Amino acid sequence: MGYVRDRLAYFTVPVLIALALLPIGSMPTWGTLTLAGLAMGLMIFIMASGLTLVFGLMDVLNFGHGAMISFGAFVGVSALVALGPLYGAAGIELNLVALLLGALAAMVAAGVLGLVFERLIVRPVYGHHLKQILITTGGLIVVEQLIIVIWGPNEIPIPRPESLKGAFIVGGVVLEKYRLLAVGLGLALFVALRIILTRTKIGLLVRAGVENREMVEALGYRISVLFIGVFVVASALGGLGGIMWGLYDEVITAQMGMSVMILVFITIIIGGLGSIEGCFVAALLIGLTNNYVAYLAPKLSLGSAILLMVVVLMWRPNGLLQPSGSR
Q1: Which one, 92, 103, 105, 127, has least CB within 10 Å?
Q2: How confident is the model at residue 301 (pLDDT cuts 50, 70, 90)?
């Protein structure tokens, strides 16, 4: 019970921050900023969740995760361009079908790239963190250059479909349609990951493999194959986050993965390496803090995530939470 109580306590942190800043401007202003912060935080969570899984379950520092984000975004956008009639249609149903197909294309492409990454780049350096950092960073640079070769060096604008432009006004609060979609998707992904890791046989095997790999393999399970699957899924989540972030900014670049990786690494450090719950809480904290600070003191917004990381690590040097399987 104490373990569950501690975790629930940390989930209240973003709520308390949001309530503490309730007096900002007016209620409509606070509501608008809070929704924007939640949307930003949950998109960061989509990208960071895969990376924290890879570290927590496989002990791999994959600095090349940004390559999956960029590559997935470009493939997904290419799919949306090919689905022009659906993506540009006036009906929300057709738009959502196009977005679903584009997201699937991004996830498949990023997953395949992740498999190649794991087989060719990561596999030879298991257990060597410094080598992992160096070689995966090199892989990220190579993929960025391949993107430039294939799609060109210029940024590519990616307007949102008509049905996801604009916003609803509720009590003066501006509820942007795309941000509502991002919040729903991020929450659904978090719930799905928690269920898979804690309520399914695959999740049980993965967590058991982390605790005692030799014992699980002695029972006849191929943990190495399972871990490769985790790496591919993590890469696919990076691709999904890439296309979501591209639609959020309405532009994609070859360097977007490397740029976003700063926020992604800050998120998993604050949350606790390997913890899905911690990653979720940290992403919400970063999104809310960034938007509140950008409104109150715009010049400080760029460094707000780093400042938040410093404050949290002074209080909790190992991050907010530890992985579910650790004690």
Answers
A1: 127
A2: confident
